[in-house]
Specification:
With 428 residues, the chain is of the alpha/beta class. The protein folds into two domains: 162 residues, Leucine Dehydrogenase, chain A, domain 1 (Rossmann fold, 3-Layer(aba) Sandwich), CATH 3.40.50; 155 residues, Rossmann fold. Helix content is 44%, strand content 18%. The strands form two sheets. It has a seven-stranded mixed β-sheet with strand order 10-9-8-7-11-12-13. A six-stranded mixed β-sheet has the order 1-2-3-5-4-6, with helices on both faces. β12, α9 and β13 form a beta-alpha-beta unit. It starts with a strand and ends with a helix.
Length: 428
């Protein structure tokens, strides 16, 4: 069963979410710089649609358990909604709405003809068996089916999901519509219409933006040090790419803890270990610390690559890095952001830093529509070109208007959406 959100007394239930308030804070800062028309701002401050669904499954023990799922669609002025599906035990409607807004800005900043959306199920993915995970994914797909589609809203992987989940979504949607529809979702396995480099794309894109930032601050990457808070899909591939460039990764953290070796971690070995054991619990070659403690280890490049809101007013003064590359969505709270700017830390904002995933998702969507697929080299070059061009736009705006990189990134994106909305007009 699915139902739309109908808050009491006309109050939007997502507006009081801390995550959504942080997204609005960043939006308002950019809107002030742009002197954005209040009529446009009032439309962009809220999602266009939110669906909340019940997702019942039969657990392996025979009992029925009902989970809560979400799909938020923020704005589709530039094109179909686009956004990942997150499985996490603490996700809520406010966080999903905030992430959908960020996706709108991310697509606009990179120059993709897509809008912003996000989906989620409130569940610990590590608690699910293979059968339970498949049941959950297929039932969720059926519940949100009326509002997704190849030209309407195209989901993708996010935290807690991967290409296997996307294959289940594609198959469920295709079965319900009576024909194979690979372009309904991106991030699929290559054998079912996925794109090469999609799995690596977010982490690789993070490193491309780090290269640009390093050039801007005068940091030589070879011989520099990096710390990654998160060792999932994004963190692992970002770490592997950094190591290829001669960067010494001295600490990583995942849900099982933090792992430190000042001489440098064996990232390829840890990558293989995590793929086999799902976490880094028990891996050799590193000292164990708390997962949040990795954030305060001195380094040249710090990459928050997991959950949001981990850099706060409580720990920001302990950070010691030259570049903060926001691989995660919304890892820095507004009060911490002010401190980092005052300290001179070069921030690569999330809507730029982690845009590699949605960029190659767009490539996959295009290839699926043509039934013609590009080579790995072609995709890598296109990804590099788009992200480096977006970085240049942000850098130039920040210099011209004397604003932070975060505000500059949001301004470039919001201005693009505003222009398109004005050209299209208001249907009323």
């Amino acid at each position: 069963m699915s139902h739309a959100v109908s808050p009491p007394n006309g109050e939007a239930i997502w507006e009081h979410s801390p995550a959504y308030q942080r997204a609005l804070s960043n939006f308002d800062a950019a809107a002030d710089v742009l002197n954005l028309d209040p009529n446009t701002a009032s439309r962009l401050r809220r999602p266009e649609r939110i669906m909340i669904v019940s997702v019942p499954i039969r657990r392996d023990n025979g009992k029925i358990e009902v989970f809560t799922g979400y799909r938020a669609q923020h704005n589709d002025s530039l094109g179909p909604y686009k956004g990942g599906i997150r499985y996490h035990q603490d996700v809520d409607v406010g966080e999903v709405s905030a992430l959908a807004m960020s996706m709108t800005w991310k697509c606009a900043l990179v120059g993709l003809p897509l809008g912003g959306a996000k989906g989620a199920i409130r569940v610990d993915p590590l608690s699910l068996s293979y059968t339970e995970s498949q049941q959950l994914t297929r039932r969720y797909t059926a519940e949100i089916g009326p509002i997704i589609g190849p030209e309407v809203d195209i989901p993708a992987p996010d935290m807690g999901t991967n290409e296997r989940h996307m294959a289940w979504i594609m198959d469920t949607y295709s079965q319900r519509h009576g024909r194979a529809t690979p372009e309904v979702v991106t991030g699929k396995p290559v054998d079912v219409g996925g794109s090469v480099l999609r799995t690596e794309s977010t982490g690789r894109g993070v490193v491309y933006t780090i290269e640009e930032a390093a050039g801007e601050v005068g940091l030589t990457l070879k011989g520099s040090t990096a710390v990654l808070h998160g060792f999932g899909n994004l963190g692992t591939y970002a770490a592997l790419e950094l190591v290829k460039r001669g960067v010494k990764v001295i600490a990583v953290g995942d849900v099982s803890g933090g792992y430190v070796n000042e001489k440098g971690l064996d990232i390829p070995a840890m990558f293989d270990y995590a793929r086999t054991h799902r976490t880094l619990e028990g891996c050799a070659g590193a000292d164990r610390i708390g997962p949040e403690d990795v954030l305060t280890i001195p380094c040249d490049v710090l990459v928050p690559a997991a959950i949001g809101h981990v850099i706060t007013g409580a720990n920001v003064n302990k950070l010691r890095c030259r570049i903060l590359a926001e691989g995660a969505n919304g890892p820095t709270t507004p009060d911490a952001d002010v401190v980092l700017q005052r300290q001179g830390v070069h921030i690569i904002p999330d809507i730029l830093c982690n845009a590699g995933g949605v960029t190659v998702s767009y490539f996959e969507w295009v290839q699926g529509g043509m039934n013609f697929f590009w080579s790995e080299d072609e995709i890598d070059q296109r990804l590099s070109n788009l992200l480096r061009a977006a970085y240049s736009r942000v850098r130039d705006f920040a210099r011209e208007r004397n604003v932070s990189t975060r505000t500059a990134a949001n301004c470039v994106a919001i201005a693009k959406v505003d222009r398109v909305m004005r050209l299209r007009g208001l249907y009323a």
